[in-house]
Design brief:
Elements: H1 5-8, H2 21-24, H3 26-48, H4 69-80, H5 90-118
């Protein structure tokens, strides 16, 4: 006799544990916090001038020149604004993206280490035991 959906449907079991509500917001908090930290880190890195960078990294971002009125308007506006928009430099954007990748990578590695130390078992009750490997046979 085959396995039908009726035989597999046992109903939904209740979990023996629940997630604390504080832990549910950690991911949202990190998605907001990490880009801000990457931007500030790139700003500090660019202003420290420890590593010599080409002069184009310190120039404000501008779109490629075109005859479009919209693009020239955006370039003129960004060049004239002394506030936040005037600080979009090429190096700032590139280093922010690099620091963002490094930050998310470090958090992933730290989470993997913590999960391995205190997480679920490696093998469940339905897993087959690992195959014991023997050395090569000699004739």
């Amino acid at each position: 006799m085959g396995f039908g959906p009726g035989r597999m449907d046992k109903g939904q079991r209740e979990r023996p544990w629940t997630i604390h509500p504080v832990w549910r917001g950690i991911g949202c908090f990190m998605i907001i916090l990490l880009p801000i930290m990457a931007w500030v880190g790139a700003d500090v890195f660019m202003n420290s001038r420890l590593v010599p960078l080409p002069g184009t990294m310190y120039q404000p971002m501008a779109l490629a020149y075109s005859d479009d009125a919209e693009i020239s308007f955006v370039n003129n506006y960004v060049a004239q604004v002394n506030g936040f928009l005037g600080r979009f430099t090429t190096g700032q954007i590139l280093f922010s993206i690099a620091f963002l990748f490094v930050g998310f990578g470090l958090i992933s590695i730290i989470y993997a280490i913590m999960y391995r130390m205190g997480g679920a078992r490696r093998y469940g009750r339905f897993d087959a035991p690992p195959i014991k490997k023997r050395g090569p046979t000699r004739r």
